[in-house]
Amino acid sequence: MSMPDTDSLNIFVDEAGDPTLFANRRRAIVGTPGCSRFFILGKLEVDDPQGLGDKLTALRQMLLADAYFADVPSFDPARGKTAAAFHAKDDLPEVRYQVFKLLAAEGNALRFHAVVCDKERILQDVLERNEAEPDYRYRHNELYDRLMRSLFGKFHRLADVYDVCVARRGQSDRNEAIRTAIDHAERDFTAKFGFGRGDQDAWKISVSTPKNEACLQAVDYFLWAVQRFYEAREDQISGTAKREERFLKLIWPQVGEIHDLHFGPERGSFFNAQQPLTLESRFGEQKRKKP
């Protein structure tokens, strides 16, 4: 749904999971330990990036000064984890609670959108293409660019200028490839809706790291919540596969839309305020009634 126009829109982009499909000798490894079943790309619109960054930095400094965390490895500056920047995967549960609480307090000043792909379906498509085109070789960046194009091709909030900060991937920032993906998304948008959102000058694209751009720490937390919902993890007590919904519920009031590309109809399913994403709606898992 479109929201009121604004002069400038600050957007922070990151990913969860990985686009890997194969190991050595083209051995498919999707969903195996160390390789995600889903790949997710998300963007967080932030009304006041400086303000949010200052709050995250102040919280981290407060926690660093707390004796409770004095001997925690992730708080060791030499390790470059929580001491340097919040990262949901590395942070302690006590830290995550504080960060989620801070993000929730921002209310409508934060708006999150994501696209999710099922890599089992991507793998099937790649194998079928290999049969038709024996020389074709899948490359990780293909999936990333495809999701980037999908994420930015949707009718979300409009602005005169889009200030997009993308989390660096590995050793290469791929500025030109990111701009190309967004250019393709803009053409998709224009073809679908009959008008454009501005020329290349309207899109200011930069690449940074969570350590240097605190708002990338925020989008990491939103993505982590979605990833914990999608990726099944083994319950250490029961030994059964388990997905966690509680983190997604924490961020849901600030979610504009999650587009699940490979669930439901041909175009996928769009989860939003009118159609919430739940374990029952996505995986058919019903809550157990207490005895």
Report on the structure:
This protein has 291 residues and is α/β, with parallel strands linked by helices. It has a single domain, classed as Nucleotidyltransferase, domain 5. The protein is 35% helix and 20% strand. It is built from 8 helices and 9 strands. The chain has helices at residues 49-64, 93-105, 119-132, 140-152, 175-193, 214-230, 246-251, 279-283; strands at residues 6-17, 38-46, 110-118, 159-167, 203-208, 233-234, 241-242, 255-260, 269-271. A 7-stranded mixed beta sheet has the order 5-4-1-2-3-8-9. Helix 1 (49-64) runs antiparallel to helix 2, helix 1 (49-64) packs across helix 6 (214-230) and helix 4 (140-152) crosses helix 5 (175-193). It starts with 5 loop residues before the first strand and ends in an 8-residue tail after the last helix. Mean pLDDT is 91; it is low at 1-5.
Question: How would the blueprint of this fold be written?
Answer:
Elements: E1 6-17, E2 38-46, H1 49-64, H2 93-105, E3 110-118, H3 119-132, H4 140-152, E4 159-167, H5 175-193, E5 203-208, H6 214-230, E6 233-234, E7 241-242, H7 246-251, E8 255-260, E9 269-271, H8 279-283
Parallel strand pairs: 1-4, 3-8, 4-5
Antiparallel strand pairs: 1-2, 2-3, 6-7, 8-9
Helix pairs in contact: 1-2, 1-6, 4-5
